[in-house]
Design a protein that fits this description.
binds pyridoxal-5'-phosphate, 395 residues, TIM Barrel, 2 domains, nine-stranded mixed beta sheet, Lyase, Ornithine Decarboxylase, Chain A, domain 1, 12 helices, alpha/beta, 32% helix
């Protein structure tokens, strides 16, 4: 370990935290500060506590540094939403196992996933998709098809509801499961309770439905993937500890499927695993002292897009000057991003020091999920280098 970390220090300069990055590098463009150690610790919470296999939802953070850290920590299963994600992960881990849980895939994508990346696990929520996959994989009985089902809307509770786009209602899920079983593929079930699910009971309700679907279909389901949705802690969204979710999931599987006949469980967290391992270090470009407008070098087309879509997920933030946290009396600033688009403004004012001036830094914490992932190159901004740090600010 000592040797490995010494090598690490030689190969890439390592910083204590974003304060040191701000002081030493003074980055002009917004950068992400990433702690591989924080990510490893969070992975350990999942692998020690979750009653089954843990995979990572690559879409929540497609940065190679994250994939390398997870692979080095022993992660072998990856939930991917596209062939591009498979190619990126294969560049990091040759023997990666994929499940392609985007319910809608083109024929070309299915074929590339199957032939080029050895993917044998796919999610479906429509009959036509089962037919498409069957045309491509033929009679390969090792292929697993997981039916993505959905509960009626009032039965979900999350900051980000996915049920409006994906998932078969129960009566269709039953038919799909029977169709998959008849065709001879490995039948499985999966769901996604919505991102930042705050209540463990939402998993329990889905597991209850999974048992009902399997029973009514008359199909033995050997595997149940409970999706992502595990929450991270944000200033305005403080969830129960992960262990409460894990215990509720294990108990529900036994209760609804019966002791000894529970399916193997799997989860595919994105946010809950990666959110707390990155922060976004931005710099102030202009402070309008006769008003309350400030302009910074990143915004809703960059690492802060999710904040605009879901204000509940406002990240924690702090101002930095001379490598120290800038304290003092605060003022509610209206924060504009760097592009020439009037939409590029944060959805609420931020309480930051009244003494703020240009070239100060503003760090946004807990931005590891859907920060780098949804950032665009609008106006040429958004290259976002990833800087390794030991400790990440999370409010
Ligand atoms: C987005 C997604 C995830 C990850 O969701 P989080 O809420 O970030 O945990 C997992 N599985 C699938 C199929 C997804 O689409």
């Amino acid at each position: 370990m000592a040797v490995a970390s010494a090598l690490n220090v030689i190969s890439t300069p390592h910083y204590a935290d974003a304060l040191e990055v701000a002081r030493v590098l003074q980055p002009e463009e917004a950068v992400f500060c990433f702690s591989a150690e924080a990510l490893r610790e969070r992975l350990a919470v999942f692998t020690a506590g979750f009653p089954g296999t843990v995979s990572f939802a690559v879409k929540s953070n497609p940065s190679k540094d994250v994939a390398i850290a997870l692979a080095a920590a022993g992660l072998k299963h990856w939930d991917v939403a596209s062939v591009h994600e498979m190619a990126m992960i294969h560049g990091v881990q040759r023997d990666a196992h994929f499940h392609y849980h985007n319910p809608v895939k083109s024929r070309r994508e299915i074929s590339d996933a199957y032939h080029k990346h050895g993917c044998r696990r796919f999610a479906v929520d429509a009959r036509e998709e089962v037919r498409k996959i069957a045309e491509i994989v033929g009679d390969d009985r090792t292929v697993e098809l997981a039916v993505r089902f959905v509960l009626p809307r009032e039965r979900t509770s999350s900051a980000h509801d996915f049920s409006t786009k994906f998932g078969a209602p129960e009566h269709i899920a039953i038919e799909l499961l029977q169709d998959i079983d008849r065709r001879g593929y490995v039948p499985a079930l999966t769901f996604h309770p919505g991102s930042q699910s705050r209540d463990p009971q939402v998993y329990v309700r889905h597991i209850e439905a999974a048992a009902r679907i399997a029973k009514l279909a008359g199909v033995h389901v050997g595997k149940l993937n409970v999706g992502g949705g595990f929450p991270a802690s944000y200033p305005h969204s403080k969830p129960a500890p992960l262990q409460n979710f894990f215990t509720a999931i294990a108990d529900a599987a036994t209760r609804f499927f019966g002791k000894g006949t529970e399916p193997e469980l799997e989860c595919e967290p994105g946010r809950g695993l990666v959110a707390t391992s990155m922060s976004l270090l931005t710099r102030v470009k202009l402070v309008c002292t006769d008003g309350d407008d400030i302009f910074i070098n990143d915004g809703v087309y960059g690492g802060l897009m999710e904040f605009m879509q879901v204000p509940e997920l406002q990240p924690p933030f702090r101002a930095i000057r001379d490598g120290k946290v800038l304290e003092g009396e605060t003022k509610a600033w209206k924060v504009f991003g760097p592009t020439c688009d009037p939409l590029d403004v944060l959805p609420s004012k931020l309480d930051l020091p009244a003494a703020l001036r240009d070239e100060d830094f503003i760090e946004f914490g807990t931005i590891g999920a859907y920060g780098i992932a949804t950032s665009t190159m609008f106006n040429g901004y958004g290259s976002h280098p990833v800087i390794p740090v030991d400790k990440v600010f999370n409010g």
